[in-house]
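Batch queue: ligand-bound targets. Current item pairs a single chain with fe (ii) ion. No template structures supplied; prediction is de novo from sequence plus SMILES. Inputs echoed for audit trail.
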Amino acid sequence: MKALLLSDIHANIDALQAVLAAAPAYDVVWNLGDIVGYNAAPAAVLEQCQSLGKVFVRGNHDRACAGQVDLETFNAVAAAAVRWTQKQLTAEMLEWLARLPSGPRSPANDTLAPATVHCMHGSPCDEDEYMLSEEDALTQLPCARAPINFFGHTHVQGGFAFDSAGDCAEILPGMTGEPAVEQWELPLRPGLRYFLNPGSVGQPRDGDWRAAFAIYDDAAALLTFWRVPYDVRMAQIRIQRAGLPDRLAMRLRAGR
Ligand SMILES: [Fe+2]
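Prediction returned. Tokens below.
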């Protein structure tokens, strides 16, 4: 079984289409949340995600657009994007966002039962927690109930591996940053526990502007990280035409 891991698409249809065009064959799609927010094509991205599969966990922007988050807790730019997004989506779309399940979840049976793999947006302890450092990951480790934990939220491709003693190694995909499609393979070793982030499709923040995703092959015990160039200029034009904050367009090229 091969799973296409998508996270933090954030309404960027140009990035999502580039990812789907570049992705190798897969059996299922596991969506780690933040389908909407920030970028300017929420309805198109939401419909595309609905057609891709049934395994989802909700992100904080999905909840915010569904009216489940106090926007006072969002920064002004993010809150402006939420308010704009709410006007672009139908009542049915907003209801669908509101019903997305929280993580962590087993993609096999949509429960928190012990499993090989769990999917989550933030961390095993808290769907809104950011795991940016080894220290962050270590504090979340006691909540992990699966050896392989796929997460998003940070918009940073990579992750963390823990040995049986709890020692942590950061996983940094060895990408060159060239404006071309790139892959980097991570063999998954038995006995280790992993927090693995496929990166953000629609708003990367790891210094690489290319859309990020990953392919998990359970039979081969292999995770392949991918980066794919896409039409950033078109995504920026959509943001400007929508009247969304300029900052949201600028950051796409910087990958920050
Ligand atoms: Fe996000």
